[in-house]
Write a structure and sequence with these properties.
single chain, 86 residues, mainly alpha, 2 domains, two-stranded antiparallel sheet, 7% strand, elongated
Length: 86
């Protein structure tokens, strides 16, 4: 994960404050995003799922300061429509 200049400065300040290496601090910062990426890659959405089946599969993530990340049934249906066109 590449940090902006301001984030890199803040990461260095935190690393110094807590006595850890900057590489370890970057790993701590990127951990939630790495976890989300890992979990979402493991999900396999079959074609033509019912709303109930979709709701059983979907996973939500709440990231403080950013908000809730989720997959909507509407977006799933739009993707299905585009697949059928192709």
């Amino acid at each position: 994960m590449k940090l902006s200049r301001a984030d890199a400065i803040k990461a260095q300040e935190l690393a110094d404050k807590y006595g850890i290496e900057i590489g370890e601090m970057k790993n701590i910062i990127s951990a939630p995003y790495d976890f989300i990426q890992k979990i979402t890659k493991e999900l396999v959405f079959e074609d033509n799922l019912s709303k109930e089946d979709f709701d059983k599969m979907k996973t939500n993530f709440n990231i403080p300061g950013i908000g809730k990340l989720y997959a909507s049934n509407y977006l799933y249906n739009e993707i299905q429509k585009k697949k059928k066109k192709n």
